Amino acid sequence: MNMPLTWLQLESLLIGSAASLYGGEAVSQLEHALQSAQCAERDGADAALVTAALLHDVGHLVTGQADDELARGIDDRHEQTGVAALSKLFGNNVLAPIALHVSAKRYLCATEPGYASSLSPASLLSLQLQGGVMSAEETSRFAANPHADAAVALRRWDDEAKVVGLPTPSLSHYLALARSVSICPTVQASAAA
User: What residues does the HD domain cover (predicted)?
Assistant: First the structure.
């Protein structure tokens, strides 16, 4: 798929993700996205951060390799792919937490006792593929980033969003919210129509 995505391509990817499992977990990609957004909304996040929670794993959908990443023992750098794919639709308030959510996992493993032991087996495996626990220098650099808190919040919702059969609001609910923070003028116009 060509990047960056159009709004129609993004919607199609999300709808299609209901048929694929979220890398090594027992929920679909869509269930994981909706549950992440639901957690953000529950915790009072603003529309941009709820949107980031919904879209944080779009990079996996673009590459089509969410399941292959773990099986092949590679890091597909889905956070970077996702940001590139979403760059024409959203601003930094959505993109920065997505860009940093993998680093946030590495940061939490370095700074929060017991965090690593709370991760699912698939998340522990991907942690190793993504560079492992941050060094002291990396943690200082991450903590100084103005988007670090948003990325850590997103990471926690990402970890929580793996519950089989959990009811969530619909994809259309979260797409409407995403349209409200989109920088794409045609998306703004269609949302108002």
Answer: 31-101
Highest CATH level, class, for 7-192:
mainly alpha
SS3 assignment for 64-90: CCHHHHHHHCCCCCHHHHHHHHHCCCC
136-145 residue pLDDT tens: 999 999 999 9
Q: In angstroms, rounded to a whole number, what is the distance separating the alpha carbons of residues 33 and 30?
A: 5
Domain spans of the chain, in order of start = 7-192
pLDDT digits (tens, 9 = 90+) for 4-59: 899 999 999 999 888 777 766 788 899 999 999 999 999 999 999 999 999 998 98
Q: Is the pTM of this model over 0.85?
A: yes
163 DSSP assignment:
-
